[in-house]
Design a protein that fits this description.
single chain; alpha+beta; 4-stranded antiparallel sheet; 4 strands; 30% helix
């Protein structure tokens, strides 16, 4: 019964999800859905530990009601880019 209620809440975007952002690698992970915020809070330490064991660092946590379209979002660049800088091309042979 709990799974059915969680599924209904998730379909409406009212279920709780744990959002973990990591600096290295630059990723966003969503874990859930959870029926209550208490369930999400109780589960978050395990997910943080798993990411640390995988070598992730700079972990920020947020628990919120949402309906993520993707569970893992990877920043392919992994670095900040200064769009005002124009690279110089060498004409030397």
């Amino acid at each position: 019964m709990k799974e059915i209620l969680t599924g209904i809440l998730n379909s409406l975007g009212w279920a709780y999800w744990i959002k973990l952002d990591t600096a290295k690698p630059s990723c966003t992970y969503f874990f859930g859905p959870f029926l209550t915020i208490t369930e999400a809070k109780n589960a978050k330490a395990g997910y943080i530990e798993d990411l640390k064991n995988e070598g992730c660092s700079g972990i920020e946590v947020e628990i919120k009601r949402c309906k993520p379209s993707e569970l893992t979002i990877f920043d392919e660049l992994g670095e900040s880019v200064d769009f005002n800088t124009v690279p110089a091309l060498s004409t030397q042979s």
